[in-house]
Amino acid sequence: MPKRILKGVVVSDKADKTITVLVKRKVMHPIYKKYINKTKKYSVHDEDNKFKVGEIVTIQENKPISKTKTWIVLKAG
């Protein structure tokens, strides 16, 4: 099964080797048939601490690195 790949914005880089990425997606409401913006934050492994707040990054699902980190950074943009 292929690993999921998502795109989002870095909202925090305070932790060592970890960034927080906010991923936005549009979902249609089942009853009202309107599109709703949904967001979710992911803790992502950043080995070199090279990504800063505001950058757009691509992340990929990975085996668990810690209790909360199961994603790694692929590239910026």
Textual characterization of the structure:
The protein is mainly β. The protein has one domain (13-39, 49-76). It has strands at 5-12, 18-28, 35-45, 56-61, 71-76. A 5-stranded mixed beta barrel has the order 1-2-3-5-4. Strand 1 and strand 2 (18-28) form a beta hairpin. The protein is globular and about 45 Å long. The two termini are 24 Å apart.
SSE run: EEEEE
Alpha-carbon distance between the two ends:
24 Å
Strand content: over 45%
Mean pLDDT: 95
Rounded radius of gyration (Å):
14 Å
When the domains are counted, the total is 1
Going across the major beta sheet, what is the strand order? Answer: 1-2-3-5-4
General shape: globular
Please report the number of helical segments. 0
- Category by helix and strand content: mainly beta
Tell me the helix content.
under 10%
Which parts are unreliable, with pLDDT below 50 for 5 consecutive residues or more?
none
The largest β sheet comes out as: 5 strands, mixed, barrel
The total beta strand count reads: 5
SSE order and pairing:
Blueprint lengths: L4 E8 L5 E11 L6 E11 L10 E6 L9 E6 L1
Parallel strand pairs: 3-5
Antiparallel strand pairs: 1-2, 1-4, 2-3, 4-5
In short:
The protein is an all-beta fold. It is built from no helices and 5 strands. A hairpin with a 5-residue loop joins strand 1 and strand 2.
Notable characteristics:
mainly beta, 5 strands, 77 residues, five-stranded mixed beta barrel, globular, 0% helix
